[in-house]
Design a protein that fits this description.
5 helices; single chain; 175 residues
Length: 175
């Protein structure tokens, strides 16, 4: 596993969101209604798991690895939705082959787009880092030390002096 840099986190976020969006969209079309209740929480956990895997697996920037992760996410999403009884009525649902083809095309296109955006983000980051190194050279600044007292008292000292009461007990009590 690799450390999750900014591009890895973006890749993981995209993979998780795509997993959830495809599962909800495909099964909303198939059944005529989006999933509700505990199924949504289960799909969120599935999407977070796929996203975390895409962010932490060392070679997840490869489109083939992403394709496998996204396909496994869709299979698990379909399994989760099937187990809880999210069925597809025969009248409203498209044929199973059309749904499978739509999943395959969406997962393939998503994997290619996420991999391409990962490589593009890395290239742009390298270019920006190189440009910043050239333009912004560090400037040494000598620390400024103030010695002595100021002409005016500090504002906090003035506020403290103004808040202290100067009233005391009567003089006759002290004799």
């Amino acid at each position: 596993m690799s450390t999750a840099g900014p591009t890895a986190r973006l890749r993981g976020t995209a993979a998780g969101l795509l997993t959830a969006a495809l599962a909800v969209a495909a099964h909303s079309v198939g059944s005529g209604a989006p999933p509700t209740g505990a199924v949504v929480a289960q799909l969120a956990v599935l999407a977070a798991t796929v996203g975390a895997l895409a962010a932490t697996i060392a070679r997840a920037s490869d489109a083939r690895i992403l394709l496998g992760l996204l396909a496994a996410g869709q299979a698990c999403g379909h399994l989760v939705l099937s187990v809880v009884g999210h069925s597809h009525p025969a009248a409203a649902a498209p044929p199973a082959s059309a749904m499978l083809a739509a999943h395959v095309v969406a997962v393939g296109a998503g994997a290619l787009l996420i991999a391409a955006s990962d490589h593009l983000c890395r290239a742009i980051s390298r270019a920006v880092r190189a440009a910043v190194r050239i333009v912004a050279t560090p400037v040494a600044v000598a620390p400024v030390v103030l010695v002595g007292e100021a002409d005016q008292p500090l504002r906090s000292a003035l506020l403290l002096a103004a808040s202290v009461s100067h009233r005391g007990p009567p003089v006759s009590l002290h004799r």
